[in-house]
Amino acid sequence: MFKVRERIKAFDWILISAVFALTLFGLIMVYSASYPLSIDQFNSSTYFIFRQLIYFGLGVLVFAVLMNFRYHYYKKLSPYIIGLSIVLLVLVLALGIAANEATRWVNIAGISMQPSELVKLGVIIYLAQVYSQKQKYIDQFATGVAPPLIIVVGLFTLILLQPDLGTAVLILLVTGVIVFLSGARFRHLAFLGTLSAAVVLFLVFQADYRVNRILAFRDPFAYDDSFGLQLIQSYISIAHGGLTGAGFGQSVQKLGYLPEAHTDFILAIIAEETGWLGIGFVILCFFIIGFRGLLIGARCKNLFGSLLAYGIVFQLLFQFILNAGAVSGMLPITGIPLPFISYGGTSLIISLAGAAILVNISLQNHKDRHHPQSKDIQEQEEENVAFHA
After folding, report:
1. Which residues span the membrane (predicted)?
2. What's the CA gap between 178 and 161, in Å, rounded?
């Protein structure tokens, strides 16, 4: 038997430590970045942090449950997860809450949530399950590669209608990674990549605000009184912080100068108040999460677990890159939040859920190495003979 003491010891504590160090640091920075706006709008300095703490508590509960929930069961739950994702996205379009010229939230039983965050994780589970069972046909486009992508296109369309091109593109990127790691042929990958890039480029030029983001990315100072203002204020935050930062709570840009200071652009406030030391801490934590996650995927003895681990890791890393790139002006602004740190309950819970699944895959890897006669490893090897062939 896999005893409790051994089980606790077998958890990937390096990964867990990095996740919660990042999350707790995020809570501190959400409070610092949000209290001026909180006072201005709600006459209370703790409005935003109080709500974030509630979601953090829920996220910890979800993490504790999922880190002990055998990831193999997601194969059976996959159709229900993807079905729920579709239903929630339809509800957003029908009954969603509008904010900032977009409808991305829905209120269920008094709780506001952003279904597209669930979709990010749901797509990974679905694709990992389907492609792990299509290894005999993975070199065939019509029967192996294409069928699961129909679901992805449907989800992409529903998210695009909110509109939320940033999240839709993120899902395409993660899908591409999973298809590649599933063993699809290069010409199929090249075709899908070219088609996806063409579609995204077409969509960018169909909306003025997206074109404006590209223009601001190229030269924000040419539009300093309009759509280039946010990026310029971000530059000022980063420059003000220097190496060691202005000090906790000492940001000037959060005092109404930098829009979305506690959400999409919280990394700029981190740079301003904690300097490059704080940015280095964030990068280090994401590096540890990425490294441990990739190691977990490589050590997994079945394709489903590997694709699941790789999908979660790349989704988190892509989010970090897209967010950091936007804040620093190295990439166009996409509206992608910073995982574990940005204000937003659904994003925080789903990020913790993804990390918890990684921890469970690591736990099962440990169990398989030290208890090779267990039923788990026999089932995995029978289902995925072609993985290491």
Report:
1. 12-33, 53-73, 80-99, 105-128, 140-159, 165-182, 189-207, 275-295, 307-328, 340-363
2. 24
Residue 113: φ, ψ to 5°: -140, 160
CA distance 313 to 105: 25
- Chain segment 129-166, per-residue pLDDT in tens: 999 999 998 999 999 999 999 999 999 999 999 888 99
Half-sphere exposure of 325 (CA within 13 A, CB side): 16
| Token reading at 72 | 């193999």
Q: Where are the domains of the chain?
A: 4-383
Q: What does DSSP assign to residue 336?
A: P
Reduced DSSP (H G I as helix, E B as strand, rest coil) percent helix, strand, coil of the chain, to 5: 75, 5, 25
Identify residue 35 by its one-letter amino acid code. Y
Could you tell me where the DSSP H helices lie in 205-265?
208-218, 229-241
264, with CB counted inside 10 A (0-12, 13-18, 19+), is: buried
| Model-wide pTM > 0.70 | yes
- What's the rounded Cα separation, in Å, for the pair 260 and 305? 36
What would the two tokens of residue 139 be?
Answer: 């070199």
- What is the Cα–Cα distance from 344 to 135, expressed in whole angstroms? 38
